[in-house]
Amino acid sequence: MPDAQGFNAWHADVARSSVCQQIFQRALGLPPEFPSNSLLTWDAIASVTEALRLSPGQAFADLACGRGGYSQEVARRTGARLVGLDFSEVAVTIAHAAARGVRGRTRFCVGDYTAVGLRDNSVDAVMCIDAIQFSDPPLAAMTECRRILASGGRLVITAWEPTEPVDSRLPERTQRMNLARELATAGFSHVDVSSRPDWYQAERRLWEAAIEADSDGDSALMSLQEEGTRALETFAVKRRVCATAIAP
After folding, report:
1. Fewest beta carbons less than 10 Å away: which of 1, 93, 94, 111?
2. Is 218 in a helix, a strand, or coil?
3. How far apart are CA 48 and CA 53, in angstroms?
4. With bands split at pLDDT 50, 70 and 90, how would you rate the model's confidence at 239?
5. In 10 A of CB 141, how many CB atoms?
6. For residues 94, 85, 127 and 178, what is the CA-based torsion angle, rounded to 10 degrees?
7. Which CATH class is domain 4-201+237-246?
């Protein structure tokens, strides 16, 4: 399982890598200088924003927010107030510095998304992008999401799930992913888990572009190439999903 130190190094390296930034922007259709820390396309960010159904002045949390690009864009589009949480101090520092246009409505904190530190029923929505699998177990993070959500609040999670039968080559954290089951166990209602093949094809383009690029000593790109090689080896036995649920 990754640790904070590893993610600190990754976020610092990728923030300095112009090649990585270009690969993310071209493959995912992102605007220049957008701080992407995972694999959402520009259209996917719009889908997540719509699914959260936020109104101006409402509050939402982004758990495992990374450098904060996705949730800051949601805040800009909706006028909602944002609390971002990540265990990487480097990512949180970058997110805070990049909060142009939404400063005063955003707060970024270092912490664990299984013990967020927010009051019960204190936010109107929660998002967790491509990170729920790092909770051990995922149910712990989902239960924490349920705790901090107000009644009627919405949760949006993006992740990967194994296809059937589960392939033993997949990391154990991916093999165990079953969002529909875990969200129901955590007490959510109106659970919907949908495949997003268009997002997945954009991910393939990103991995292929990274592998073909000349790393030339770029540590962030070399890390991206290693991850892409592993991802493509098991690409056909996973599916890209987006889950939505409501706190009763």
Report:
1. 1
2. coil
3. 9
4. very high
5. 27
6. 120
7. alpha beta
